[in-house]
Amino acid sequence: MTSIAVNKNIIAITRGLRIDCYDYSNHKIIDVESRDANDSISDIVIASNCEYLAIITSMSKQLIIYNWPTFKTKRKYVLPRSASKIRFSPQSDHIFVADKTGDVLMYDISKEDDGIKLLGHLSLLLNVLQTSDRKFIISSDRDEKIRVSCYPNTYNIHTYCLGHTEFVNHLEFLPHNNKYLTSTSGDGTVRCWDYVTGKMHYSIDTFLDINDETLKDDFAKVMIDEGIEVNSLPIVHYAVTKKDESCSILAIAVYNFNKILVYSLNSDDECFRHRLLQKIDVEQLPSSLALHGSSLFVYFDVKGTVLIYTIKYENTNISIELEKTVQIFVNDQSNGVSDMENKQSIKLLYKRKFDNVQEYQERKKQRLGKV
Fold it and tell me: What local confidence, expressed as pLDDT, does residue 370 receive?
């Protein structure tokens, strides 16, 4: 779930069925209509041409596209199933929907027609995007897979990017070289791929910079009680931005870790290296985060605040400083999503492991005991 979208013109934040669009001086509140009292906005995205903003809702399954800067509704669709992620095409003329049954749908925003099913996974889809040359659709799921499908003939699977050991929840192209795809996972790693060949070129293990066995053990104990075996802390939020032609900046929030990890990732031909730039202290797990240009945006739903950090580049030194705090939904009396609710949502992505053999043996003993 993403509750913040940013470009050079606005910061758009969601809470419940409301959107606060802040243009760096004024706030514009948009209320989304729904008959379901438990409904909420589950994802928000801004088109690369800065002309459209789109959201999806969880219960009423609405896909709504707004014009910018008027915020008038351009298109409204009802999705066939609940969705987990939406993305605009690179040309901002289509929108892709990853739904929770494993299908990717495509909507032409110039038309009112229903979406076209492009492809399907056998697992819950968590992310989707299209390459800038429109040759491929890349999708990721709960079953550790990243699939690269040809477009428009998406029945042709070009390759898979395999290596993650848990769900793959984020996909982003490497901003300074979009030949490469970056991904994050419940296994706590960021991986960099040549998505055409499916080859993994680099991996960052965030736990090496957390280095807190107690955090990991506490999480493992909670999860084992729910029938889930884990060996790492999952990455919850992820954002990327371009520094220059050879370097990108990555911002990462990890489950239960009250610091945001900020890295630089450099590449020279096929040689990669990364550096931990800073650990930014936060009071709790953020609701969402975003990078745009030289700014990092960190959103806390319960407090209704966005912290805006400036990334400063001085020769080879990179520093990150808090620039200002923006209060959003000022007159909104509704409760935000708590830290506990944020943490609970990530747990649902893990697959339960059942020991059917042990269960069978126990039932067998019970039957024999009755004889």
Answer: 59
The separation between CA 238 and the C-alpha centre of its own chain, rounded to angstroms, equals 6
| Residue pLDDT, tens place only, 324-333 | 999 999 977 6
Beta bridge partners of 45: 54
Superfamily of domain 1-126: YVTN repeat-like/Quinoprotein amine dehydrogenase (2.130.10.10)
- In the chain, which ranges are continuous DSSP H helix? 207-210, 213-224, 339-347, 356-370
Tens-digit pLDDT profile for residues 1-25: 679 999 999 999 999 999 999 999 9
For domain 163-370, give the fold: Lipocalin (2.40.128)
Q: How far is CA 304 from CA 75, 241, 252, 329, in A?
A: 29, 24, 20, 6
Burial class (CB in 10 A: 0-12, 13-18, 19+), 343: middle
Which runs of E-coded beta strand occur in 103-208? 103-108, 116-120, 125-130, 136-141, 146-150, 157-161, 168-173, 180-185, 189-194, 199-205
CA separation for the pair 148, 34 (Å, rounded): 35
